Amino acid sequence: MPIDPALKRDLQAKAVQVRKLILQAVHKAGAGHVGGPLSMVEIAVAMYFKILRIDPKNPQWPDRDRYVLSKGHSCIALYATLALRGFFPVEEVFTYDAMNSRMQGHPDMTKTPGIDMSSGSLGTGASPPLGMALAAKRLGKDFHTWVHLGDGEIQEGQVWEMAFVASQYQVDNLTAIVDYNRVQQFGFPKDGNVRRRVNPLVQVPEKWRAFGWHVIECDGHDFDSLIPACEEAKTIKGRPTCIVAHTIKGKGVSFMEGDYNWHAKVPSPEELAKAFAELEAAQAG
Amino acid sequence: MAKLIEMRVTWGETMLELTKTHPNIMILDGDLGNSTMAQIVAYNAPDFYMNMGIAEQNMMGVAAGMASVGLIPWLSSFACFLANRDLDQLRVTVTQPKLNVKLAGHYSGILTGKTGKTHIDVGDIAILRALPHMTVVAPADSVECRQAVLALTDMPGPAYLRITRDAGPVIFGEDYRFAIGSVVPVREGKDLTIFGTGVQTTRAMEACDLLASEGISAHLVHVPTLKPIDVEGLVAAARKTGRVLTTEDHNIIGGLGGAVAEVLGQHHPVRMKIHGLQDCYGESGPNDAMLEKYGLTPKHIAAAAKALLNKAR
To answer: For labelling alongside A218, which of A40, A190, B99, B166 has CA 20 to 30 A away?
Structure first.
């Protein structure tokens, strides 16, 4: 069911702002990831501007919903979203990767307001959210925990250890979101072409179902699809839910979309200008 | 003859005791509860116990998440798994964010009940000592083990407790007081200083008797906390005799010997010998035969002490 059109317009405008901040920050830092962050923009915006129970003025609020970005290399998208949501000043996003910055190259919960768990070594961010969800039940707290996984990341065995244990304990206050963009850092040749490289992992929804999870598929760039999926996830009882969000790596910039070369590449001034023009044109259109 | 008690039983009983005073305790078990004695809690206080299955990487991460919400998770598994299988999870999600996670490393050292080399970790102290923010404790007996469990539970931050499988002599009395980061003088002497850690300290006590029968007076100091190490205590004990022997049920690289050498090399250089496993893996076998083959008996410690003294002359 489509969401309120005014809300949708607002969220779409936020998504454009986040994309611009990602590209600018990586350009300024001369380092960082681009493709993965652009892939997760709508998910982060949906979380922080609609789904999560949070208070930007009190990032350590014990009863807040938890959101863990397990694909930690995409953290610039999260920093941009947290800044726009008011966790820290937007200008601070441009200190990304700088010495003594709170905007570390991978998420550091000891430094950045709003980061619920350190992550970056892929797979290691998958399990702490399960611990948070189990702890919530143990302590009688009603917060919901979200874990955002990359589809490349779920090649890590730890993710499936987590999937088994979460199912065993019927953890229904935990939702995983798989950012299913089908491209990883280098990947595997597609159809024998060594220059065209993809993540060959298939039957992703079936894998989660086989582990006992409720599975919802959605378009990870369409708020009308994404937000109802998140809301449904919170209503499922007796088992954890996995949202398989179909996404596009590098989404929003034509020459970055689907290209593994943009996993971690710094846009030149010309590329930055072209990307901004495309984002603005799409927003106006 | 000293009373013999299994440290793992003491650990399990102390955990059960803690469930009555610490409502936020949670034991996470790597499916070894009937070996590690986590079963004592599983049977008697099931709300404080969760089997995490044969999945240590996930278990470590779950502990991190629980600690971030205010629980005090105690992980229970074999030392060989806790120090290796989930090391990256420990590094990134526990020690880097300094989360309040405790590790009970059972079946440490070479006496693991005839399991063979896969289940013998000769390097857990070296590995875990190298992680910033980590506390590492190896108790000598049941009395110290119980006090260490209580102290580590109430200390904020990540900690590792090195637990031995089989029954060992109780060397400390009820008046003993364990303090994290402090060495414990065991026996006064003047010819050389022996530093022991874990249950190897109990064998070092016997070695002191052997040495005494040959007219050698050894000053024995127990080092239960490998990190943070007691710099002042080590230096003072080394200063007493000017010669130092370390002995441990662990590789001679990176363990107690390494820790003591790091301290004395910088603060009070003395002639020193490191006794322990000679950079090798273990095998399966009965305890007595294992100690004999791998050179960890009191007799071997005494021989190492004499070698140090001869070299020093």
So the answer is: A190
Apex A193 CA angle, A189 and A196, nearest 5: 65
Give the start-to-end residue ranges of the domains of chain B.
4-169, 184-312
- Is A165 in contact with B52 (Cβ distance < 8 A)? yes
B4-169 matches B184-312 in fold: yes
Structure tokens at B62: 């779950």
Q: At what angle do helices B231-241 and B256-267 cross, to 10 degrees?
A: 80
How far does the CA of residue A207 sit from the closest CA of chain B (Å)?
18
Fill in the amino acid letter for B100.
Answer: N
CATH number for A259? 3.40.50.970
Q: What homologous superfamily is domain B4-169 in, according to CATH?
A: Thiamin diphosphate (ThDP)-binding fold, Pyr/PP domains (3.40.50.970)
With a threshold of 0.95, tell me whether the complex ipTM lies above it. yes
From A132, A161, A165, residue closest to B69, measured CB to CB: A132
Which domain range does residue A213 map to? 5-284
Number of domains comprising chain A: 1
Q: What is the pTM of this model?
A: 0.97
- Fold exhibited by the domain B184-312: Rossmann fold (3.40.50)
| B 64-83 residues with CB < 8 A to A | 64-71, 73
Task: Tell if the CB–CB gap between A168 and B53 is shorter than 8 Å.
Answer: yes
Residue by residue, pLDDT tens for chain A (285 residues) are 799 999 999 999 999 999 999 999 999 999 999 999 999 999 999 999 999 999 999 999 999 999 999 999 999 999 999 999 999 999 999 999 999 999 999 999 999 999 999 999 999 999 999 999 999 999 999 999 999 999 999 999 999 999 999 999 999 999 999 999 999 999 999 999 999 999 999 999 999 999 999 999 999 999 999 999 999 999 999 999 999 999 999 999 999 999 999 999 999 999 999 999 999 999 987
Name which of A146, A149, A158 to mutate to probe chain B: the one with the most chain B Cβ atoms within 10 A of its Cβ.
A158
Kind of pairing, strands A193-198 and A188-190? antiparallel
| Cα A69–Cα A71–Cα A75 angle in degrees, nearest 5 | 65
DSSP secondary structure, A224-275, as one string: HHHHHHHHHHHH--SS-EEEEEE--TTTT-TTTTT-GGGTT-PPPHHHHHHH
